[in-house]
């Protein structure tokens, strides 16, 4: 099911570049992150809830590590929290990469037609590892982690940086996002937004109102969907 919003088919400037989120768009990894941080917090005398996961979706590493220490009772140095969670995630991905059905096909179909970037809140080491396992690294001209900019999502920094590295105007780029914070980040940066709502941590109606197109799954993302998007002329 495809839902069109915000006048996405109105006349305007065509899209030149597409910037994908990773967690929740290419990978069904939000539940994995939630489970790993829950296990880690419990193992070290703390606690982690689904509300914590929802609140931190889009946060960069410094933000979620500080949150686990300051709000979840994990009394370890920041670098130990980060290293422990990363180790568990890499082990999970190595055993069973949670690639969404249709994700590889969608990216490979769109890549010949648009410059592709990836703007993820995961650390670069995990992004690179996951893309290599998924055999998708070669499709992306640019990869940006929220750790490489001043602020994580919902602030627009990571999308602005991805567009800058692609040499593309934000007003002529589209983002593919799943979470409320990600949708807001892309919209605030000026990109057209294709939303694929996370089935577990669904974005709010308000956030979805910032999307130009809403899809039920990444299997619905096609060259034709991107080609139908129009941005305001710059």
Task: Looking at this protein, list some descriptive labels.
234 residues; alpha/beta; Rossmann fold; DNA polymerase, domain 1; seven-stranded mixed beta sheet; 10 helices
Report on the structure:
By secondary structure, the chain is of the alpha/beta class. It has two domains: 2-28 and 99-231, Rossmann fold, CATH 3.40.50.1000; 30-95, DNA polymerase, domain 1, CATH 1.10.150. The protein is built from ten helices and nine strands. It has helices at 30-43, 50-56, 61-71, 78-95, 103-110, 124-134, 157-166, 180-189, 205-208, 223-228; strands at residues 2-4, 13-14, 17-20, 115-120, 142-145, 173-177, 192-195, 213-215, 230-231. Strands 1-8-7-6-3-4-5 form a seven-stranded mixed beta sheet, with helices on both faces. It has a two-stranded antiparallel sheet with strand order 2-9. α8 links the parallel β6 (173-177) and β7 (192-195). α1 crosses α4 and α4 (78-95) runs parallel beside α6 (124-134).
Structural class: alpha/beta
Strand order of the largest sheet: 1-8-7-6-3-4-5
In helices, the fraction of residues equals 40-55%
What percentage of amino acids are in beta strands?
A: 5-15%
Number of domains: 2
Individual helix count: 10
What's the mean pLDDT score? Answer: 93
Q: Secondary-structure element sequence?
A: EEEHHHHHEHEHEHEHEHE
Taking the sheet with the most strands, its summary is: 7 strands, mixed
- Using the 3D structure, state the CATH architecture of the largest domain: 3-Layer(aba) Sandwich
Low-confidence stretches: 6-11
CATH class of the largest domain: Alpha Beta
Principal-axes geometry comes out as globular
Q: What is the CATH H-level superfamily of the largest domain? A: HAD superfamily/HAD-like
Task: Give the N-terminus to C-terminus distance in angstroms.
Answer: 31 Å
As a whole number of angstroms, the C-alpha radius of gyration is 17 Å
According to DSSP, the number of beta strands is: 9
- In the CATH hierarchy, the third-tier topology of the largest domain is known as Rossmann fold
């Amino acid at each position: 099911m495809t839902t069109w919003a915000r006048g996405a088919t109105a006349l305007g400037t065509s899209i030149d570049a597409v910037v994908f989120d990773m967690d929740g768009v290419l990978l069904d990894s939000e539940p994995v992150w939630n489970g790993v941080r829950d296990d880690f917090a419990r193992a070290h005398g703390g606690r982690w809830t689904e509300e914590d996961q929802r609140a931190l979706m889009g946060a960069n590493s410094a933000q979620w590590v500080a949150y686990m220490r300051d709000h979840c009772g994990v009394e370890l140095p920041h670098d130990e929290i980060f290293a422990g969670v990363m180790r568990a995630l890499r082990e999970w991905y190595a055993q069973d990469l949670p690639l969404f059905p249709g994700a590889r096909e969608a990216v490979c179909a769109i890549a010949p037609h648009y410059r592709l970037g990836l703007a993820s809140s995961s650390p670069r080491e995990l992004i690179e590892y996951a893309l290599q396992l998924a055999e998708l690294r070669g499709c992306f001209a640019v990869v940006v982690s929220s750790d490489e900019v001043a602020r994580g999502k919902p602030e627009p920094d990571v999308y602005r940086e991805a567009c800058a590295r692609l040499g593309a105007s934000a007003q002529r780029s589209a983002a593919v996002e799943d979470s409320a914070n990600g949708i807001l980040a892309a919209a605030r940066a000026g990109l057209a937004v294709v939303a694929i709502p996370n089935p577990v941590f669904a974005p709010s109606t308000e956030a979805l109102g910032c999307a130009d197109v809403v899809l039920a799954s990444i299997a619905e993302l096609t060259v034709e969907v991107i080609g139908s998007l129009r941005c305001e002329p710059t």
